[in-house]
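Try this one yourself first.
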């Protein structure tokens, strides 16, 4: 799988960004997922969830918020 899945969770209140991330990761054993969020709390919660599921996490700040990049 070489395509990147993009999840736009900007504007969503917790726990919605984590739930949207969980949906995107369901059934994936490898690949790359970029989760767009607009708060530090959402960024950290998504990163913590993905780390607990065994994904490698990279956090980046953007003009409109944050991107959490998950890869495996």
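Now uncover the answer:
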């Amino acid at each position: 799988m070489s395509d990147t899945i993009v999840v736009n969770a900007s504007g969503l209140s917790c726990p919605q960004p984590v739930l949207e991330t969980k949906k995107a990761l369901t059934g994936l054993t490898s690949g790359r997922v970029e989760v767009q969020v607009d708060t530090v709390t959402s960024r950290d919660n998504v990163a913590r969830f993905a780390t607990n599921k065994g994904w490698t996490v990279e956090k980046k700040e953007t003009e409109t918020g944050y991107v959490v990049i998950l890869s495996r």
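Discussion: The helical segments are 16-25, 40-52. The first helix runs from residue 16 to 25.
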